[in-house]
Write a structure and sequence with these properties.
3-stranded antiparallel β-sheet, Ribosomal Protein L30, Chain: A, 101 residues, 43% helix, alpha+beta
């Protein structure tokens, strides 16, 4: 019987990049009621009452406001779900996504 000595093979190091993050943006409109926007922010983005009102008012005053930052898939899912909540009620509520710089 022959003894063989094996040396462990080292795998090349793989550098893992962090996934690119995307901002979910609330776009202001003059038709969706403020209370409804606040409700959507609370339910879809799990915000407290005061934070949701602050985000809503920032979007109202500046035209747009960053709601949250997620990986691309989650950001798009949340933006679509929040926009759909407004559409179901007949409001032009709009959430968009864009890459974070």
């Amino acid at each position: 019987m022959q003894d063989t000595i094996t040396t462990p093979r080292l795998l090349p190091e793989v550098e893992v990049e962090r996934p690119r993050l995307y901002k979910v943006m609330l776009v202001n409109d003059d038709f969706t009621p403020r209370d409804f926007v606040t409700l959507v922010l609370k339910t879809e983005f799990r915000m407290g009452e005061e934070r949701a009102k602050g985000v809503m008012m920032t979007a109202h005053q500046r035209g747009v406001c960053v709601v949250a930052v997620y990986t691309q898939e989650i950001a798009e899912e949340k933006a679509t779900s929040a926009t759909d909540a407004g559409r179901k009620r007949g409001y032009p509520l709009l959430f968009t996504t864009e890459p974070e710089e």
